[in-house]
Design a protein that fits this description.
The complex is a heterodimer of chains A (371) and B (410). Chain A is of the alpha+beta class. The longest helix of chain A is centred in the middle third of the chain and has 33 residues. In chain A, strands 3-9-8-5-6 form a 5-stranded mixed beta sheet, with no helix packed on it. In chain B, 52% of the residues are buried. Chain B is of the alpha+beta class and 410 residues long. The longest helix of chain B is centred in the N-terminal third of the chain and has 19 residues. Chain B is globular and about 75 Å long. In chain B, strands 1, 2, 3, 4, 5, 6, 7, 8 and 9 form a 9-stranded antiparallel beta sheet that branches. The chains are: A alpha+beta (371), B alpha+beta (410). Chains A and B meet through strand 6, strand 7, helix 11 and helix 12 of A and loops of B.
């Protein structure tokens, strides 16, 4: 688990609008409006633009540090870039969905009202594109399927726990967690559920009760069943029910889903590849694989959108997913994996490098989808 | 170090450009930001960061190459070069880096150097022996001087602090600037290279320019008094820069870097008498004068004997065993840094010297010197070498060129 629960439900409106605009890569920005900022002038290559994503490419040709602003009515700041040193070049990307009258300003010396000019935005930005909407629908279907699978597998697992069949429960534990780990960022968006179901003993505050999957893990692998084990098991199943119900109503966005994929890899990097997640059972590689599969599902759903906007990124992601898969396959045993404690430091480092290699391009998907 | 403020140091260094001349390509120039800290030119016949007046801080990093695709490696070196050009000029790693990109995308630059000047940042690349193992079709391009270092007596090398296919030495007068540079290069490299080990250093332990005063190492002694200096251009050609005919043509103008992480047993040293410390080093602790001399820069006279007939500079003293005279005139350019990586869990400082030197040919310079030191130097009782690496640093780049272009393209 992580304590980070914000990214799946971001400022929905902004993302939906932004996702509809065919943008250019932020790096080279052809079509950007150039702004020559000097000590006494602020010259734009164009003073109007269609609604949507508007880019300004600002070069400070003056001798003082400057700023560039785009204001709406009543000097409401739409977007700004500060601290542009002499000789430096910066880009400002503004999301302006509504047409109307706006104002631009350069502020040499970063003081006062600056050198102002009128700026006109025409039309209204198009609503979310078809491909992005389809991506969200596809991914949502996957989340629903995994939630159902989680319910089914956890029910079996809980039954074994409550029957006192430790051997059988151990067999089912890692399997039950697979659908959970595939969609965990969705669960994390429901506040209390994630810590209650997936909290680690080390993360508890004094006085906080240790519940959920990892509590049962400890009971099974370390302490043996405790008097309250059945109650903990019942609570976990009830929480799964609640999760399933809540995922049915969750509203996802393309950027939110993309960020969720990145978070799944963050989970791998900070918890699984260090062996901290499954500290008692050492079944970290099961979770690792599930996180990777869950992230891949997001990329699969977003594929048409990503391919249109950044085909090179898609090729890189395919390659890096394949590399992680190939590495994980080495440690496969039957339909499971080797225990984390059976890996050498060298092998762990190799896995960590492969995760970094995938995470870096994956972290770019949300920005690509949004532009 | 005494008396020379940062500001003054820059002034002196600026004047040093004229002395260093066109040949080094590594002098300071004052940046476009008026009175802010200077920038060091990135391009030139030799890489910057070698004879550049030693900055205060360093972050040294060694990478393993994880891709097996030669074209991907070359593309990375080109991308690194563009980022290095920018960062050494005081700019972000990429255009529109830390704050001017899309709000939904991770920033292209990590941002911690945003309000800082270039701080004389230099970035220097090197290629390790393992890069020439055949993965990239470079096996026949390995310079003979890029040997695998032999095992030296008393070495206790940690593989996790040794070796590497590539290295980047980042030096700057602000540690945050050096760390920022390494962090951004590592980030650009994810998926093609993986960090093998890295080392932070502070308090330069040598002087590479006459514009600099001699600093002290963690034993409290002045270090680098007799080091090669940027101004010694003829000596640099003789001892540092690979010359045409030395080996493969792609290395001409380059040099060989040896890095050694030398743990110092600080606590036992601190319990050693001043007299013994000075005998071990061969110099007085206060002025840095060699025994038999009065001032720091007095000639080291290895033959001088006292009234008792004993050699003034002991047989097993550090400066005698390291002296060029002891090794047929072999010299090298040292550019090390002090390090402290906290303490070791036993309450002792994990501290010492991150020794870096540049050689025209380590087979006749670093290796014989270290072999003798590790066998006979009485200072070895207080030292443990636990990290080790060697790299071939190619010559400098020209505008539009990139790191390693002479190796990969010719």
């Amino acid at each position: 688990m992580t304590t980070n629960a914000r990214t799946l439900l971001p400022a929905l409106g902004a993302i939906l609008l932004a996702a509809g605009c065919a943008g250019q890569p932020a790096g080279d920005a052809p079509g950007a409006i150039t702004v020559d900022a000097s000590d006494d002038a602020c010259t734009l290559s164009a003073t109007s633009a269609p609604a949507g994503t508007i880019r300004f490419d600002i070069t400070n040709k003056g001798s003082q540090v400057t700023e560039f602003y785009l204001y709406g009515e009543g000097d409401r700041i739409i977007s700004e870039v500060e601290n542009i040193g002499p000789g430096l070049n910066r880009q400002l990307v503004a999301e302006v969905p509504q047409g109307g009258k706006y104002t631009t300003a350069c502020k040499p010396g970063m003081r006062g009202d600056g050198i102002r000019g009128d700026f006109t935005v025409t039309g209204t930005a198009a609503a979310q594109g078809g491909a992005a909407a389809q991506a969200v629908t596809d991914y949502k279907r996957y989340v629903d399927e995994q939630a159902d699978e989680l319910k089914a597998r956890t029910t079996q697992f809980i039954a074994a726990v409550k029957a006192g069949d430790v051997a059988q429960a151990k067999q089912l534990y890692a399997q039950a967690r697979i659908p959970w780990e595939r969609i965990e960022p969705v669960a994390e968006s429901f506040g209390d559920l994630d810590p209650r179901m997936d909290g680690r003993e080390a993360d508890l505050e004094p006085g906080q009760q240790f519940t959920g999957f990892h509590r049962l893990e400890k009971d099974l692998w370390v302490t043996g069943p405790q008097p309250d084990t059945p109650a903990i098991a019942d609570q976990l199943l009830a929480d799964v029910d609640q999760l399933v119900a809540q995922t049915r109503t969750v509203e996802l966005t393309p950027s939110g889903a993309a960020n969720g994929a990145k978070e799944l890899l963050d989970e791998v990097a900070t918890g699984k590849v260090t062996g901290e997640e499954e500290i008692f059972s050492h079944t970290d590689l099961w979770d690792f694989k599930a996180n990777v599969d869950g992230a891949r599902q997001v990329v699969t759903a977003l594929r048409p959108v990503l391919t249109e906007k950044d085909p090179k990124l898609v090729a890189t992601l395919d390659e890096k997913f394949a590399a992680v898969d190939a590495l994980l396959a080495r440690y496969q045993v039957g339909d499971g994996y080797r225990l984390y404690t059976e890996l050498t430091q060298e092998q762990v480092k190799e896995l960590a490098a492969a995760v970094d290699a995938l995470s870096e391009p994956l972290s770019k998907t949300a920005g690509v989808v949004a532009r | 170090m005494t008396g020379v403020s940062r500001r003054r140091l820059f002034g002196l260094a600026g004047a040093g450009v004229a002395v260093a001349g066109v040949g080094t390509g590594a002098g300071y120039v004052v940046g476009s930001h008026g009175d802010e800290a200077p920038t060091v030119p990135f391009h030139g016949p030799h890489q910057a960061g070698i004879t550049t007046p030693a900055q205060d801080r360093m972050h040294f990093v060694a990478f393993d190459v994880t891709t097996t695709d030669r074209a991907e490696l070359v593309a990375l070196l080109a991308e690194w070069t563009r980022a290095a050009e920018r960062m050494t000029a005081g700019l972000e790693a990429v255009e529109h880096g830390a704050v001017a990109g899309h709000a939904e995308a991770p920033p292209g630059d990590t941002g911690e150097a945003l309000d800082l000047s270039a701080s004389a940042l230099t970035l220097t690349i090197g290629f390790g022996p393992s890069l020439f193992d055949g993965r990239f079709g470079l096996a026949d391009r390995r310079p003979p001087a890029l040997v695998d270092l032999p095992h030296f007596p008393a070495d206790a090398l940690d593989p996790a602090r040794s070796g590497g296919d590539l290295c980047v030495q980042a030096c700057a007068n602000d540690p945050q600037v050096a760390v920022h540079a390494v962090r951004n290069l590592a980030r650009i490299g994810f998926g093609k290279v993986a960090v093998r080990w890295s080392q932070l250093g502070f308090g330069r332990t040598s002087t590479t320019s006459r514009s600099q005063s001699t600093p002290r190492n963690l034993f409290g002694f002045k270090d680098g008094t007799n080091n090669l200096k940027a101004e010694d251009t003829e000596e640099l050609d003789r001892h540092v820069w690979a010359q045409p005919g030395d080996g493969p043509q792609w290395m001409s103008g380059g040099t060989f870097l040896v890095a050694r992480r030398i743990r110092m047993h600080i606590e036992t040293w601190d319990r050693t008498s001043l007299g013994e410390q000075e005998t071990i080093v061969g110099r007085t602790k206060g002025s840095g004068a060699p025994h038999g001399g009065a001032e720091e820069f007095d000639r080291v006279d290895l033959q001088a004997r006292g009234a008792d007939g004993e050699l003034r500079i002991a047989e097993d003293s550090h400066i005698r065993l390291a002296a060029p005279e002891t090794h047929g005139g072999a010299r090298m350019l040292r550019r090390g840094y002090n390090f402290t990586d906290g303490s070791d869990g036993l309450g002792r400082l994990d501290a010492g010297l991150f020794f870096v030197c540049f050689n025209r040919d380590p087979r006749t310079q670093f290796i014989p010197v270290q072999r003798l030191l590790s066998k006979k130097d009485s200072m070895m009782e207080y030292l443990q070498h636990n990290g080790s690496a060697i790299f071939a640093c190619p010559p400098g780049t020209q505008p539009g060129g990139h790191w390693g272009d002479s190796l990969f393209e010719s």
